[in-house]
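Dear colleague,

Thank you for sharing your sequence with our group. We've completed the structure prediction you requested, and as agreed, I am returning the results in plain text so they can be pasted directly into your records. Please verify that the sequence below matches your submission; if there's any discrepancy, let me know and we will rerun it promptly.
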Amino acid sequence: MQVKLRLFFSRKSAMKQNNEIIEEITPLSNNDVFYIADRRKARFDFPIHCHEECELTFCQNANGARRTVGDSSEVIGDYDLVLITGSQLEHIWEQYKCESEEIKEITIQFSAETIPDVLLSKNQFFTIKNMLEKAQKGLCFPESAILKVYDSLVSLPAEKDGFYATLKFFAILYELSLCEEAYTLSSNSFSKVNINSDSRRVRLVQNYINEHYKEEIRLKQLSEMVKMSPVSFSRFFKLRTGKSLSDYIVDIRLGHAARLLFSTTNTVSEICYECGFNNISNFNRLFKKNKNCSPKEFREMYKKKSLL
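Please find the predicted structure tokens below.
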């Protein structure tokens, strides 16, 4: 089923952010649970875009293509499956080094209200709720998870009965929600998402960092805030977040810097200091280490993607 997408440039956003990210008007009807498009194509040619609806995208036979979600950019293999629930999170799949002319792409778009809060609050939907929250930054699934849902996923477009198609779709979401190896893509600060720890102390520190990332932040200051010694707090923070405090602060600052690089005309130097870095050389080094490209290359990459 080939779908013709209706698009428009979000003029208000372009004027506000000095960029031209296409906002897709999806074909999803208010009367449907989801919309599905099953495509066969020789290349990726859709520019970077965003939309209000949630989206599950599966690609096959696209080894060497490059997927960008927010400030994350990765070269994909033969199988790629990504769930995006973040409203207005920019994303694109582009040809890059993919030589295949038999790309299979299945896109499922659904509203955030498809599964109401009254269901998500129930024990049986707990893992799905967690998955949908993580996917606000884009959630990528490993091949092992893809193979578990592969048969259901590729047969879903041919399902004629809407009720059974809905059950199959919910089953796919549930199976994917059980995958512990799925990983998030875009940074919190770029995707404008706050997914906080269940620890009150860590949450307090995260909120402080989010509000004061432009300023100098010291370990002693944060540890005193939660009434712990610096050594104990460092160990506690990494245990609860999976990142050292310094790495977490750098990630927050880099996420804000990445968004400013494509949404403003500020110089790299101006963005460096505006996001809490006090050394342009260190900023360039950390950006390249975390984003696999320099700040200048990142800005140019986003500019090119918007003109595809």
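Summary note from our side: Residues 245-263 form the longest helix (19 residues).

Kind regards,
the structure core
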